[in-house]
Amino acid sequence: MYKVLVTDGISHTGLKSLLDHPNFVVERQPTLPTEELKKVIGDYDALIVRSQTKVTEELLLSADKLRVIARAGVGVDNIEINAATRKGIIVINAPGANTMAATEHTLAMMLSLARKIPQAHQKTAAGEWDRSSFKGVELYKKTLGVIGMGKIGTEVAKRAKSFGMNILAFDPYLTEERAKKLGMTKASLDIIAHESDFITVHTPLTNDTRGLINEEYLSKTKKGVRIVNCARGGIIEEKALVKAIQSGHVAGAALDVFEKEPVANAELLQNPNIIVTPHLGASTVEAQEKVAEEVSAEIIEIFEKQSIQNAVNMPQMSGETQAKLQPYLLLGDQMGQLVIQLLNKQAPSNIEINYYGNLIEEDTELLTRTLLKGILSYHLSDSVNLINALHLLKEQGVSYNVVKHPTNKGFANYMELSVSNGQETAKIGATVLNGYGARILKINQYRIDVRPEKYLLYIKHRDVPGMIGKVGSLLGDHDINIGTMQVGRTEVGGEAIMVLTLDRTLSANVIKVLKLIDGLQEAQVLELATVDAARERR
Ligand SMILES: NC(=O)C1=CN([C@@H]2O[C@H](COP(=O)(O)OP(=O)(O)OC[C@H]3O[C@@H](n4cnc5c(N)ncnc54)[C@H](O)[C@@H]3O)[C@@H](O)[C@H]2O)C=CC1
Ligand SMILES: O=C(O)C(=O)COP(=O)(O)O
């Protein structure tokens, strides 16, 4: 049974799949103070939050069981991602689920700002019929500068166009071609400042965007500009904004998000030309149901099927690529487990990963992590996963290198993993054969063809007649059944290896007796922890 803690106000309807699931217990604590949360977080496998709960490194120190932090929304700046990554905790979000809500809120704010609706409402509701103080401006034929043309920025710009606005857009990922297709103009930040009547920001808060709209930027803007922020507090420097509004250079601002929330900046709150909402961009019935539905479904997938779609701290890949790479992911983990055992279970200092064939066309980041996780799992067991593998490797001072080769080694795809501890090197080469499953094709310098099984007996010996028979009958004498047997050698009469698949492991005593065979130099059982899962999937 997995325990899920839900803090912040999350839609009950949206959580239905988790609430109804027999393997999950959901507990809701929407107003838990941080100190209390610290005391209980250790009991939970998953945590669902919105923007209010601060998931800090300190909180995560007590989160010993936690495997998933789910942000029922987009922005993850309330979660210390690096701390979660170090602990191997997956951070997921629900990108796109609240796009329309935030888009419509932005337009509502822009229109309210242009027509002074909140101010007019307040006075009218107070019983005053004042028709002269609230003359507004039109959006029609005005220029809107959109900074951040992701999901929300794009939808805002599309709708603003329908008001007859001319759109200038800036985003490092926006191409001329896409801007043209959308009927907008790709512009620099400076051009947006010089030419816009309205500016709206839709970027995440990053080192790059913090203070993006500051005193210097505001000084470049057109006199009378109106500014909207429904993205993140901190992208606009509040002090500089208030100053520019007080001076009359900026006509007004509409803010849904603030440097510090809840906002208490009196200068800002009391300015008649600044309209505010308390971070309501995503607060629609539809968006709240959708974000909760998406993270609930993903939590179930992660715990029940080990499948991850929207992790913030993992490489993303399309479902199609993931399906294509799936058998390689499993094999990669096994190669990692095998190679470290071949290195006599000593910690590696250097790892070399080589990809050949069609694989080089794919995004292999996840595959690389899988190979590295396989290696580390021998010593670190369950504390290593795909999330923290790179961090742990760095922490252990192990370097790794990935090379993609345009050749194919005779197979559609081929992977080679080489691990060294400074003195010795162990190598495994493997592929997945269409219709036949995974095959280990190389161990160190020897060519073989072995299906990865739970127990592999690896023997190094002199290439002399009778060796296979001796090993076979000795194992038979000890009631050990052999599944398959493969030999590999580099030259006739030289050194050779034998790899047998066994139905069960061997005792230390049988290994000892095997080593007494004349010409047998090494005997070692290589065990694969993940092979049962592999069988199920075949
Ligand atoms: N007020 C609210 O309740 C809500 C706020 N948001 C916030 O809105 C923002 C946008 O969300 P989405 O559109 O869903 O995200 P998105 O990821 O689709 O778009 C963000 C865009 O910002 C661009 N960007 C990053 N750095 C930039 C820079 N220095 N200059 C210009 N562009 C830059 C990215 O390239 C990307 O295209 C986020 O900060 C999100 O947290 C989202 C939903 C609700
Ligand atoms: O999704 C986002 O980025 C938001 O800012 C929405 O925040 P909320 O879930 O309403 O606290």
From TrEMBL:
Pathway(s) served: Amino-acid biosynthesis; L-serine biosynthesis; L-serine from 3-phospho-D-glycerate: step 1/3
UniProt-listed NCBIfam families: PGDH (TIGR01327)
Assigned protein family: Belongs to the D-isomer specific 2-hydroxyacid dehydrogenase family.
Function: Catalyzes the reversible oxidation of 3-phospho-D-glycerate to 3-phosphonooxypyruvate, the first step of the phosphorylated L-serine biosynthesis pathway. Also catalyzes the reversible oxidation of 2-hydroxyglutarate to 2-oxoglutarate.
Catalytic activity: (2R)-3-phosphoglycerate + NAD(+) = 3-phosphooxypyruvate + NADH + H(+); (R)-2-hydroxyglutarate + NAD(+) = 2-oxoglutarate + NADH + H(+)
Lineage of producing organism: Bacteria, Bacillati, Bacillota, Bacilli, Bacillales
Keywords, comma-separated and alphabetical: Amino-acid biosynthesis, NAD, Oxidoreductase, Serine biosynthesis
GO BP annotations, alphabetical order: L-serine biosynthetic process
PROSITE patterns xrefs: ACT (PS51671), D_2_HYDROXYACID_DH_1 (PS00065), D_2_HYDROXYACID_DH_3 (PS00671)
InterPro entries given in the database record: ACT-like_dom_sf, ACT_dom, ASB_dom_sf, D-isomer_2_OHA_DH_cat_dom, D-isomer_DH_CS, D-isomer_DH_CS1, D-isomer_DH_NAD-bd, NAD(P)-bd_dom_sf
EC number, UniProt record: 1.1.1.95
The protein's enzyme class: oxidoreductase
Domain called ACT: residue spans: 456-533
Protein name (record): D-3-phosphoglycerate dehydrogenase
GO molecular function: NAD binding; phosphoglycerate dehydrogenase activity
